[in-house]
Structures are given as C-alpha cells and as structure tokens.
Amino acid sequence: MISHEIDFVKLDPTQNMTLLVRTEHPEEEHRDIALRLMAYEHLHAEQVGFVRKPGSPDADISLRMAGGEFCGNACMALAALAAPPDELAGGHPVDVVLEASGARDLVRCRVLRHAREYTCELAMPLPESVERGADGVALVRYDDSLHVVVETGRPDPALRAWAQRLAARLGERGDASLIGVMLYEPRSGHLTPLVHVPLLGSAVWERGCGSGAAALAAYLAWEGRTSVTTRVRQPGGVMTVAADHARGALTGVRVQGTVRVVAEGRAYL
C-alpha cells in the first residue's frame, strides 16, 4: 500500500463535507487516496477533490474530483479558499475562475466573506438536455453526469431503496462520472440528494448537493418554461438556485450557498 503525507483542507459547503487535497498526486492514485480519506476511521467526508495548477491562462485554479465528476459544492469550497483575503476585506465580492473536472468550460464563482463564513454564487454548467423519462421522472443530462429528479412526498425507506437501485443501474452504463437521484418534495421545497460516483463505488445520501440543486432549478425552468429562483431545503441547510429561461431554452443556472473552513493540516496514509 502506498504511503502518503497529505496536505488537506476540510470544508463545509451546506454540510456536504468536502476534503480538498493540496499536495500533488498522480491521477491514477486519486481513487485510492480519496476512499481512504473519506473513511470513518480517517478524516471522514462525503467527497474529495484535488487542487491543481490550471492549464488555461484564464483560470485562477483547477479542481479535479476523485471520480472525475463535476461538483458544484467543491467548486464553491475551492473558490472560497482561492479568493485573495486582502481583496475580500471590507465586504467586497471577488470572482474566482476555475477549471473543473466534468465541465467543458471554465466556471466562475463570486465569493463574499462574512467573518469566518463565505457566501458563494457559482455559475453552473448548462445541461445538455432536460427530458421526461420513464415513470414520470425528469432526466437532466450534462456532459459527464446525469441527475434524475423525482417529485415525491416525504421519502420513505422503500423510495430510498428504489433510488439506490436506480443510481446503481444507471451507473453501470459507464457513460457518466456521476449519477444523482434528487428526491424533491414540491410542497415544502425539500430536496433529498443521493449521489453515486461509479468510479469510487460510492453512493451517499448527501446533506447538501449543489449540482443536484442546480439540476432541480434547470428542471423547474424547463417544466414551467420560465425563469425561476427558489430556495431549496436540504438536510444540511438551504441553498438558493436560479435558472434563466428565454426563447424556449435554458440560458443560465446559478447556485448560492455558504462555505466554512472547518479543519486543515496533514493527514497520513
């Protein structure tokens, strides 16, 4: 087993506990490092991203998730870390441009600091398509991921088990780095997100999912054929999402949430 000394930061974007690794490691080692760091007996988190130098001259920093997926919350977490503290002083917002795995284009995040907490608004990649699937569920397809939006009442154990089977089945197709099943309660605005990363073999009922909340906003705008802004309640807190709709198409999707740094230091594998 490979031994590593890891320079890490643990962050809390809407309780979607995220580890960002700042030491450089070969991409083929990311999966093993992430699985060990995420374990209960180690740093214990829902996901791991690796910070890298950007390849594009227009990007400030680069993020590769352990499974190669796109993650909105991890992008917001890294933007909060990368924003220059002197520029954040005085309550001024700072724009951070990121390269991110699972996204073809650069993504931009606006960061505002309030004492030890950051408010981040991320311009999300647009879905390639939104369509109605079997059993009335909505399929929100991205370049490298798929989110399934299911309108439902309060999720019970049977529905959760069905969602896990669906995520596993869709993951077996091998055409997406991330499968999300978003259980949405329209009356309360509550979202229960399940995230499956096939490469890691992980399936996590996350306490907050920025990408899933953005997919929900895209679905709501597509379904209503109008722009929407709404507060999405998740187990870990509330996120604000917005989707712009004009001339029969989605033209923009944004998600806003809070980020806190909860720990940083060295980890040993």
From TrEMBL:
What's the short name of a Pfam family annotated to this entry?
CntK_N
Q: Which domain of life is it from?
A: Bacteria
UniProt-listed SUPFAM superfamilies: Diaminopimelate epimerase-like
Name the record gives this protein = Diaminopimelate epimerase
